[in-house]
Amino acid sequence: MTSSEDVYDVIVVGSGGGLVGAYAAASRGLRTLVVEKTDRVGGTTAYSGAGLWYPGSAPLRRAGLDESVEDARTYLRTVVDDPSREPLQDAYMRAGAQVIEELERNPWFRSFEYGPVPDYYPEVAGASPAGHTVFPPQVTVAELGEHAPLVRACLPAERWGRDEGPVLSGGRALIGRTLAAFLETGHGSLRLNTAFDSLVVEDGRVVGVEAVSEGERATFRATGGVILAAGGFERDQELREKYQPVPERACEWTHGAPGNTGDALRAGIAVGAATELLDAAWYVPGLVWPDGLPLFHTGTRGGIWVNAAGERFVNEARPYDQAGREIVRLHTTTGVSHIPAHWIIDQRQLDRDGFGGPYDQPVGAEWFESGALKRADSLEELAKLIDVPLDALRATVEEFNGYAHTGVDESFHRGETPWDRIAHHVLGFPALPELNYPAPPTPDWPNPLLLPLDTPPYYAATILPSDIGTKGGLRIDEHARVLRPDGTPIEGLYASGNTAAAMSGRVYPGAGTPIGSSVAFSYLAVLDIASATG
Q: What is 145-168 written as a DSSP string?
C-alpha cells in the first residue's frame, strides 16, 4: 500500500527546465516531487547558456529596448509557418514574460539580464537584430551552499574533468538558483537516482508514476498531475534509428544529457499520447576534439568547410541549428558525403583565432597526435590527407580567396547578417550603436570573416553533425496537456521541453527557444494544475 509520504500534488519527471515548473508548483503550496534519473540535477539545461527567448519580458524593458511583442509574434508565426502551432506560440509568448516576473519576486533569482543575440532569420518579417533573449545571473558555490554539489557540471568539466570553478553561470546558474528556491519552499522534494519508467493510470486519468529508485521499485502518486520534462531521446540508438535519418554514432555525438533515453516518450505513447516531429532534432555542428568526439561549435571566424567532393556548401558562420541541419540535409539528399565535413584553415587563421568558439584553447600536440587536426605544407598534400579531389579543393579555395579580396561571399554571404556581425564583432565589424557595441580596430580586409587561405601550412579539422537534443515528442496543447491522436487531453498528464514536440516546429527562431520552451510549458502546466486544484 502506498504510504502518505509517497503522495504528492505534482510530480515532475526530469530536473532541467522543468525544475522551474516544480518551483512554481511548490511556491503555490503544492506538494511537489522531482524525479531525476541521474545523480545530478540539471539535465541538458545545465550544459546550456540558459538563454530564454522571451519577447516583452522585464529584462528587455530594463535594458531600454524599444521592441514590439507583436513584431516578435509576427516573426515567430512566419518563421515557423505552421498554423497548427499558433496556439502554442501564443501561450509561450504569454508565459515567458509572466514566468520571469514571478521568478524575479524571489530573492534567489534576482534580476535576469538581457543579452544581445539577433533573431536567427533576419530576412523574416518582425525579426529583431537585438533579439529577445534573457539570461540568469551568475551564482557562486558559496551562495548555493549545500545545493551546489547537486548541480550537474558543465559539459567540458564532465567530459575532461576540468575544474568547474567557484561560479556557476548559464544553465548551471539557472538550475542552481531554481533548486535552492524549490527546496526552500518547504513543499518540494527531490529524488535522485530514480529512473522513471511508466505512468499509473486509473479510469483514464494519470495518477502517478512508477520508477526504480536506488535499485528498488517505487510508486509515487500525484493528485494534481504529472509533468514529463525528461528531455528527448537523443541518447537512445533504437529510437533514433526508428525515427531519424541520423548516422550510426548519433548517440555518441549528441550533447544531450546522459539520462535522455526517451523514457518519458515511451511512457506517454504507452498511455495513448500522440506524437509529432520525431524525425527532427536541434542539430549543431560539432568540432571533433582529440578525444575523438565532437563538441558543440559556434563562432567560425575563418577558413571554409568542404564536403567529400572538396566543395564548400554553407555559410560556416550561420546560426548553429541552421548549419547543423544543412549538413544532415545535404548528406541525406545529394549523394555527396558531408559527414564528416572538413574545416580548412591556414596558419594565419590558426594564429589569429585558433578555432574560436566558447571552448577555445591553444592547439597543443594532442590535436596532431590524435589526428583531430591534420597539417600539410600545400593544398596538394592536404587533399591527400583528407581524401578529397585536389582540383575541386583548389578551385574552392581560389573562389573563396577571390571573395576575401572583394569582401563579398557571393556563394553563401558570410558576414552579412546581424548574427554574423554581432557574434564576430570583435574581428572588426562596424559599431552597432543600438546595442552599445564599440567599433574595434578594423583589419586590412574588407570583411573580417573572409580572410584568404593563402598562408601555408594548411590545416584540416573535422566537423560532424551533433545536436543539443531531439525536438519531437508528445503532442501538447496551450496548457501543456498531453493530447491523444483525436486531440483530447489525457487527464493528469503534461509535458514540456524536449519531451514535448517543439512549439517552434522544425526551426530554431532565436537563442533561448529550447530552454525557453521547457520553462514556459512546465510553468503553464502548473498554472493549469493549480487552477484545477483550487
A: GGGGGGBPPPHHHHHH-----SEE
